[in-house]
Amino acid sequence: MTVRTRFAPSPTGFLHIGGARTALYCWLEARRQGGQFVLRIEDTDRERSTDAAVQAILDGMSWLGLDHDLGPYYQTARLDRYREAVEQLLAEGKAYYAYESKEEIEAMREAAMARGEKPRYNGYYRDRQEPFRDDPNRVIRFKNPREGSVVFDDKVKGRIEWSNSELDDLVLFRSDGYPTYNFAVVIDDIDMGITEVIRGDDHVNNTPRQINIYHAMGAPVPVFAHLPMILDQEGKKLSKRTNAVGVMEYREQGFVPHAVLNYLVRLGWSHGDQEIFSIEEMQSLFDIADVNKAASRFDVEKLSWLNQHYLKTDSPESLLPEFEWHLARAGIDVSQGPAPADVIVALRDRVQTLAEMAERAKIWYAPIQQWDEQAVAKHLRNASGPTVLIAAREALANVQPWQPEALHEVVAGLATTLELGMGKIAQPLRVALTGTQVSPSIDHTLYLTGRDEVLRRLDAALIKAAE
What we know:
This protein is mainly alpha-helical. The protein has 19 helices and twelve strands. The mean pLDDT is 95.
């Protein structure tokens, strides 16, 4: 039997970090076993589901590279199938119509609580065999077994047992004609051949109810794995409605997708002491049964460290698509400056994110917008500053080839000729070329600025020094 996992988000908001980790674990579990990964959009909550949220989910999955083999399926396109399934249960006496108003249901719950019992439906219509009638309060309820218990071996949490006496007759179809989550998800998983259901542990309470529906439908029950929560840095639960940001926001902050994936895979799973995993290693080593039962804490500093690792070690060419996206977002016209791959090489050891890299790169694609006056006073208006700029302009005018190595030799030669330390040469040049005293190595700074622009900026710096 082909292993099939599924990621089934509700499009009521962006794809947040907790959802992305679930999607990753489902994807990896399928990939390790040579199975299939299904994407399903559970959009039957018509009041809160939006097209924008659907697109945010699809964009997030695409950016992370979590490709699906089947789907995306949409629950709103399967309403006829849910009606067919519930009609089967009605015909077999495993479901029934109920007609209580909201007020009657509330009174029922209050009465149960007054008796010290769990508030739930009392089964009034369970055995009345009421026929269909046009009624705004009409729902279809499931005849949950009243005896015995539901037992399942959770791949993460271990053995879980629920007494059927703790479960009431849940609603399968609401009065608005839409199926409830617990019913639609079972029919979907049956029809789509899902063999492993991997999801957050906030669904543990739903699982015994769903298992009983599988049995009622005469379908095999999949294996379940419920993932522990992800906590924020304060130890609070991450929530898409409170403190978690969407996956695409991490892109905007300058993280690369495989750094995010590497970080997420370690939020609850480990392989010895290994911290850095390629996608191929994740696919071959990950096993949902090895996921930790304890909650994990999200640490942005650790994610930033991983991101910097990939900026330093990945080929500049592989980082180009993301970096160019950030350059465009920063309003930078790459035709007005150096090749972006060269910028990556110059800055990769100095930044943690591509957004930071794009911000620092602006100096090579546009004139100096603002001078650091303290740096100007210290390095351009001192005794040696103008002398260095004049000598550098003359030496750099005819350098061949215009490459970092050749430029480094020129700067070193200036230090020897002028009998000054390298710092006394590099800092005035750095201020002249960037307006500040902070930049990559002076040879890379010269190289990226380009010969013509270097000469123009040296002339402007001489005027600035004389002010």
